[in-house]
């Protein structure tokens, strides 16, 4: 089946409802649609057309959304670039995705070296030309591509189809409900599935989005107090900062506010309990780029009873544990459902992401006797730092590229502020200043991925087949 | 893709939430699931198995639902028999559908002559055997088959798949919202799509159903007053009767109550306005058995401005008018979306129901310049008089606008001069000279559309869901 174009449909069905609000400005779905069509005409002037692969690099502001929605109207595949990445990392993604166009926020233009760059300013000043609007979207059409790292250290471009995003939106609605009054506060990056999925829900539900250009605990607390928003997405560290502000101000939260979706790793139950004293319901979720946002969610009512659990699968989804014979047995987490990506692009396009429709996550977990999922270990020792995923292998690869480094091992170490930060251990071929090594990393890695410590050691812990045992590294922290 | 079995999923995700309430009894989703599994074991004892075509004839009560849900667990195709049909009509449907089993409420056993009858009593007293529960449902799996009459007069068995029911539920939710507190009052027959779709929504949303065994305006008004329900489905005549009861009792409606879905033909705007004085929001809908319930819906905010309209398509659906070059031009209504049946069974299985994914409804209508659908008439009721098309609904609407008229039905009757002329039948609120009524019509209708006769009757012929049967009116001419 095909979907009617979501934005056209919302402009038709919920034309005067608020689609986006930013600072003091607001756009209805009707205005959003006509603005997106205008931008689509401008993009068409540069030759952007149906099925064009278009990379976008932008900070969070309304024009980023206008341009994304314009791409939806035209029928492009959007490669969502992470503004925190280094030039080297971005260049890799552009090359791997073979993006024909790179639409760049002027503020970030220094990050990209490509003959295909079109700045937002030049888009804005282009004269629109005729374009063929996509009235219908095929279910399997790729809407977005997001890069995620894996065990190999080479980031993989994950295809997210219209059906992936639709079923994710629907499944969330079947879990937490929907109402015409809902407004979702978006402080998550729009290029990340946590932020992007808010836009998809907006189009599917006809729901308003309140956009902040970045996370600011004071500003968030203000929205909650005023009751201008009903939902928001958080990670542990942002939730805690908001709670601190509410505490400081002895503030109360408007009864309009309904739910927080919390992703990016387990949330301490103390945060959830503190949130409850403000009447805030926090739902912990487990998901990944390959599942277009949440796959399981823990209801607040179960939070204290099921500490550390990520909850149960949403209505359309199934979770099983590879090889587990009975509840409590850990194994690889397998996921099935219409939210699961059909696969990767570029050099990983041959990589099997599903078997019999089951996504092999690489994460380790178990289901308890009531069917609650507990994630024991994220794949390949994933480090979750302030909600961002960091893969040790990616950092190790960079370290190993330096001639002075013979072996490298990276693991997470606890951080009060970020939950976890990366720590590196290296075996050297020759003497080198660790600052020099760090500067070498800085050229190739986003700053949040930089090791917060680098220590020289004689050897690294390895198993019999010489595989690095990152979990043992942690004992050295 | 496959759906996880909806009832299993709800028993897992919303186990303690109310699934069904009837008189003083209640069943949670967990209880409903175990009861359905018990009944499935009993059905299996008779040889009912996956893909069995099972006809069911029952009055509205919980056991009917247990048995339907048992059939879902086993994976049967349910032929939903209408208890108001004659023995001859039922025999036709059993023969056409080649039903292997006929499950019959003991109260209705005289209606069926078939060697395949299994009474509810014998099911109840059977000893359950092992059966294989369907953990997953294919999207294209036939869940229900409902017979509908057409222009031919030969009822056709319409297949309704899991995807049809799912998308119908989802589309309704995207229109009116969903919340964990919702309870839908079901007074529509469960064998009809209007009632059956309430059960499907219940399973998809995890929503409670409050079941009445039949429509009783007093009982409905009581539920609205007490606030025990949040939604209900009505047709024009049942809505009016409920309003009359509320008026009589000078009653108020609980703020818990949210929305009425009104189907089965246009609702007089006066009813909608009366409902609004009670805070009841009435949404007129247009749908049919072939679309598994509503395809378009009119919001109350538009009701006065768009009198007679059936609203706009729901989010996943598209409507177009065959041959129309511009807004306002009437033609056959074509419908596209995942709610459209893949086709008929039995002797009509070869009949093409879709072309390029578009359902040709046979109904006549137009879209206005804002995209609102106006159903001018169901094609089979069209009166052709001296070459002019006359749509009974138009005349009925005028008659209903007169305060003395409670119900009105119009059909064609043979005329030597004109081929056909309109004849009207009215149920009155109070005595009135028919000449006065005719004069009232004359003010609002072209003369060729004036009923050539108006007769007062006690009641009008209606089907189980209270929809006016204009074809039966013709027998009165």
Automatic annotation (TrEMBL), chains A, B:
Residues of the AMP-binding enzyme C-terminal domain: 394-467
An example molecular function term from Gene Ontology annotations: ATP binding
Residue span, AMP-dependent synthetase/ligase domain: 11-344
Domain of life the protein comes from: Bacteria
Pathway: Quinol/quinone metabolism; 1,4-dihydroxy-2-naphthoate biosynthesis; 1,4-dihydroxy-2-naphthoate from chorismate: step 5/7; Quinol/quinone metabolism; menaquinone biosynthesis
Catalytic activity field: 2-succinylbenzoate + ATP + CoA = 2-succinylbenzoyl-CoA + AMP + diphosphate
Gene3D superfamilies: 3.30.300.30, N-terminal domain of ligase-like
Enzyme Commission identifier(s): 6.2.1.26
Protein's GO biological process: menaquinone biosynthetic process
Cross-referenced Pfam families: AMP-binding (PF00501), AMP-binding_C (PF13193)
Keywords in alphabetical order: ATP-binding, Ligase, Menaquinone biosynthesis, Nucleotide-binding
Stored InterPro entries: AMP-bd_C, AMP-bd_C_sf, AMP-binding_CS, AMP-dep_synth/lig_dom, ANL_N_sf, ATP-dep_AMP-bd_enzyme, MenE
Biological function: Converts 2-succinylbenzoate (OSB) to 2-succinylbenzoyl-CoA (OSB-CoA).
Family named by the database record: Belongs to the ATP-dependent AMP-binding enzyme family. MenE subfamily.
Protein name (Swiss-Prot/TrEMBL): 2-succinylbenzoate--CoA ligase
Organism, scientific name: Planomicrobium soli
Organism lineage string: Bacteria, Bacillati, Bacillota, Bacilli, Bacillales
